[in-house]
Amino acid sequence: xxxxxxDKLDICYNSKDVINIDxxxxxxxPIPSMKIQKKIISVIDTYNKKINENNKSINTYxxxxxxxxxxxxxxxxxxxxxxxxxxxxxxxxQLVSSKKQTDxxxxxxxxxxxxxxxxxxQPIYNCxxxxxxxxxxxxxxxxxxKDKFFLNQNGWALSITDKHFLTEYIYIWLWNNQNxxxxxxxxxxxxxxxxxxxxxxxxxxxxxxxxxxxxxxxxLKRLLISDNNHLGKYDIINIILESYNNISIDMEAIDxxxxxxxxxxxxxxxxxxxxxxxxxxxx
Length: 283
Known about the structure:
The protein is α+β, with helices and mostly antiparallel strands. Among the domains are: 1-31, no CATH class; 80-201, Adenine-n6-DNA-methyltransferase TaqI, Chain A, domain 2 (Alpha-Beta Complex), CATH 3.90.220.20. Helices cover 42% and strands 18% of the residues. It is built from eight helices and eleven strands. The protein has helices at 21-25, 34-76, 167-177, 191-195, 204-231, 233-245, 251-257, 273-278; strands spanning 79-82, 87-91, 99-100, 111-114, 120-122, 127-134, 142-151, 155-160, 184-185, 188-189, 198-201. The protein has a seven-stranded mixed sheet with strand order 2-8-6-7-4-5-3, with helices on one face. A two-stranded antiparallel ribbon has the order 1-11. A two-stranded antiparallel ribbon has the order 9-10. A hairpin with a 5-residue loop joins strand 4 (111-114) and strand 5. It is globular and about 70 Å long.
């Protein structure tokens, strides 16, 4: 049975993101029996259903986070402070040398790059324990990174200067308001307008309460996202088809199953032990 070269799908597009028919038409795919095709579809449908359920839960947890934040703030806010009075903005820098995570050949490229891209690593760092904002994204991307990292020219790093504010609280407040918080000119964040934004000033114990409740649901979301990545259709197809490609299958025995519906328990086709180890059975 031929191998399904799914890795070649990425090179079916030219520099203008137009699909290359010549490459696509020469990709080999296995043609298993109808019985196996139906089994593959059934497994993928099961996984997709689980992924959709996880996504609904993720959205629900996000809404709970937003409501929780506002409930705590509205019940405990005493006053507001402008961002310019409680934090500093550091602009990122440009570094030509970079490698993707998959291309790391040595340990010196160990600092994640943030700003506009996050799949590269750098040999040096210029920030740590900071809130990151991507200046040029259509949907402003906000992260809180505790580790050392490299910030490129497309981002800001926010560091808190007022001891009455916790960095993670500021991050959560910005995260909760990112869709309507930023005044943009030509899709670029305007620093003066940003620094004049007012943030709710609450006691440290309330900030810690917000952080604790936010992170509880954030961890639940991470588990579901990790589950979705594991259940991703691309990986499942590869696992199933590669398992069929690497094992010995009695195709006649499989095809004969469709003619055995009148039997109470048809016998299984003859396969070796490798298939039993590699074929997924569902979540």
